[in-house]
């Protein structure tokens, strides 16, 4: 791989003709092309630019008869659903229309055009097909860029359009015909190119000084100036004065003539020269693209950026900016809500330090000139290694789940070329033989998978390592205890399990329904270490207890981060012998009594209970001491399965530490036993299954009979799910949830009893039974209903036609017990003195199973408002059914009403809604509401508006759950050890 430093700068023997093909995707490509064109024209050459970019973009910058512009569309870039989101499927389909269907005519027409202008060299940034045309004609071709479309489109195909996979193959094949790639800093993997030359940043030069620009704009020299350079703002979105720190002025690029701005915002003229404005500003707010990244680096302007969906070049440019301390990220919700101030003030503390060359336009022009006259500019020495490395990284990136933060492997770091140290000379093998390390730890097994919360967890461990804490009085007790929890010289096992958003199914899970669950971005991490009892680090009180008992026995020590937020003790410890009754484990009932002794430590049942369940159900013997650290970002009491995430993460980490091979389904069922029998909460299994078996951006479709994963349903890219917390604490251990479950099982018993009576009647009666239930159905159907195990297996029409009229609205516990004996539920008990609602809890799972089946089918329908309306209506129906069961709440009803208001407001204004439905989730009686809407900026704005309106009405700002991440099985486990110096 050659560097640009040694190019021969001798002038060419004649005037050359360059054909410069430029993608129409964004003006960033055009701005760098202009710099190259400027140098080629200045050297006396003729440049023909073929592009979809408007002509004035070039002619305003380069005024010469030697520059010709030809309008043509040969690719489509990326189709954006809104300024922050790409539509992957629409992109692939548009590329097919623009470049695949007319390919033969493109090849023919471009051959004729290149012949007509007598081109000496074809330049592409980075239009694929022209490399093929040039090779066919025997003309050399050069590509310029920091990414290529084969890499960008590959994830789109995996996510939305696998039937378009031949598109990527064709693009890569076209690029392979290119003679040289001139690779710009901030590059991503581009393995299709055979020969690569790294070139400096291509940056437009300044025309005016900082003082001149400020004077023209009427700005004081010491004024704090923000440049808002967003390249398309969300529709209907208004800038507000209070979004800026006091005394700041914001310069707005690309504002429409009709856009009103507050007095502390100034609309720039459409022909404002951006580099001058950048150099005159104090920081910039915008999106990361090559144009913005190169110019803020060159002029040392801090960039506050908002991340975009499916812009796959972004992580590599972000890596470049972070390397030079040039950027900070603003969370999208804060951007849309106008919470800008902390980010802008933080940006002023950055110290951008890029001092590398910015003469890429000149360097590139010289290489193009030399290549056109036949000079060899490249060396093959490192090309094979780099192509292999790029191919590995391409594969790595394509394995990441959508919705997960993109992480670039450490060994694919900035090249020496990018940091000004000359050409890249590292080979891949050296990088691969270096073990992946993070902070102070060596990762012996597993993969961070780009999950930033896992990186943060490892950082928190690193801060504990070696008791490297600030003075104890300034620390939470939990961190002081955690600092002496582990032996840092030994292996530690880490598992991760997310919370879940109940999209459809909810309380119908314990009745056998199909459920659809989405694993959340928020997750619980658990670290486990096992030690011989005589080598275990013990807290002082634990050590005293051991000495009092005259011997060192295996102990369990647990630290839970976040205890100060939930009024619970931060630590728990016990002798593992307390779980034994002679040679056998104690009963679950005894364990429940054990954990209830101290209310502040009852939380430990979710963690330690996994040990007892493994002992009881699998016969595992724990002879070692065990240290467990729990750190959960899944908020408690919000109906998003905080308890399941703790149970699944804990059991996964213990299984890894002890070499237990438990498949994900069985692990989830075991964790359900922890909650049902040790904790005493009568939940179904869907929470544990979603946490264990889920995958990012997919709905786990599971039939709870008892726990059969049907499939993982990809969430269509045009839709999105959010969770909004009502602020009303939810608990599956509460009375409402338990009483509804009792009523459901009562209803099942009544249906089975009625069906049994009819079977008996049909067998003893000589005349055929003419009851509504039996007529035309036969004894076989009645027998199956008499043996009904799961209420959801009863179709709605059978329930309404045959049983509904005989199910009472309410029945007392003693009346039911007297007539039916028992309700046959192992995790709830009927209180004879209490009355139970029966009809609504019985009807709910029967209809909910039907709704979920319909919902799942609709997900595969076409991308239309009718599809989203249908899905939303099913969610509204589910919400109303919860309320009929007595599991609603004022807070969740208010949130659902707000979603309906947003939907109806858009319709009444003659537009298309962005939000389409909402429902209460999980066990109900508070907790979180699930919302469905379009995957666009407008829907995000409306979600933020709902948050603010809810706060105005209740004083509580709902927590927003937005995003997805892999379940515990997909994550696997990490095995780490402190690095040996």
TrEMBL record:
<dbReference type="InterPro" id="IPR036554">
    <property type="entry name" value="GHMP_kinase_C_sf"/>
</dbReference>
<dbReference type="Pfam" id="PF10509">
    <property type="entry name" value="GalKase_gal_bdg"/>
</dbReference>
<dbReference type="InterPro" id="IPR053205">
    <property type="entry name" value="GHMP_kinase_L-arabinokinase"/>
</dbReference>
<dbReference type="InterPro" id="IPR006204">
    <property type="entry name" value="GHMP_kinase_N_dom"/>
</dbReference>
<dbReference type="InterPro" id="IPR012369">
    <property type="entry name" value="Galk_glycosyltransferase"/>
</dbReference>
<keyword id="KW-0547">Nucleotide-binding</keyword>
<dbReference type="GO" id="GO:0005975">
    <property type="term" value="P:carbohydrate metabolic process"/>
</dbReference>
<protein>
    <recommendedName>
        <fullName>L-arabinokinase</fullName>
    </recommendedName>
</protein>
<dbReference type="InterPro" id="IPR019539">
    <property type="entry name" value="GalKase_N"/>
</dbReference>
<feature type="domain" description="Galactokinase N-terminal">
    <location>
        <begin position="491"/>
        <end position="530"/>
    </location>
</feature>
<dbReference type="InterPro" id="IPR020568">
    <property type="entry name" value="Ribosomal_Su5_D2-typ_SF"/>
</dbReference>
<dbReference type="InterPro" id="IPR014721">
    <property type="entry name" value="Ribsml_uS5_D2-typ_fold_subgr"/>
</dbReference>
<keyword id="KW-0067">ATP-binding</keyword>
<dbReference type="Pfam" id="PF00288">
    <property type="entry name" value="GHMP_kinases_N"/>
</dbReference>
<feature type="domain" description="GHMP kinase N-terminal">
    <location>
        <begin position="606"/>
        <end position="694"/>
    </location>
</feature>
<dbReference type="GO" id="GO:0005524">
    <property type="term" value="F:ATP binding"/>
</dbReference>
